[in-house]
Amino acid sequence: MLAGCDLRQARTVVELGPGTGAVTRPILGGIGPQTLFLALELDENHVRNLRQRFPRLRVFRNSAEQLCRYLGRFQRHQAEVVISGLPWANLPAAPQERLFRSVLRGVSPDGVFVTFAYVHAWWMPGATRFRRLLRHWVPLSGLWWLI
Q: In this structure, how many other beta carbons lie within 10 angstroms of the beta carbon of residue 93?
């Protein structure tokens, strides 16, 4: 999942929906010493656990819709890398689009946005709608598509 991300050179890396931290650990192992690493997570228990396990991580209990707000807190406009563990396929249309627009505003034009989905969710209406959002809003040049 992180193979296409230049974490070491990134000035700012954001993880949306880190959950239990399965992807957080390899991100922390890959970022540079000066990289700002932020995470946004809604679940209070996950936030508490992440703070205990990963003291270097700046994790906040808030929606990914607030991505730009948190970047601004650290005098950043955009991130070079945004990694998402959000359940795109489970989201209703309006929140899905709001979240995706926040990601588009928060990732730099030459940055990388990475997300994943479970194969069993492929045909879910939310997953189909998310693929349409990707096709509509993200230019295909330089992007790898597995859809």
A: 12
Domains annotated for the chain, with CATH where assigned, are: 12-137 (3.40.50.150)
pLDDT, tens only, 4-58? 788 989 999 999 999 999 999 999 999 999 999 999 999 999 999 999 999 989 9
CA end-to-end span of the chain, whole Å? 15
Is the model's pTM score more than 0.90?
A: no
- Please count the other Cβ atoms lying within 10 Å of the Cβ belonging to residue 86: 23
Question: Residue 85 has which token pair?
Answer: 């563990």
Q: Kind of pairing, strands 79-84 and 36-41?
A: unpaired
Q: Whole-angstrom Cα distance, residue 72 to residue 21? A: 24
* pLDDT tens digits along 86-128: 887 777 888 888 988 899 899 999 898 887 655 555 556 666 7
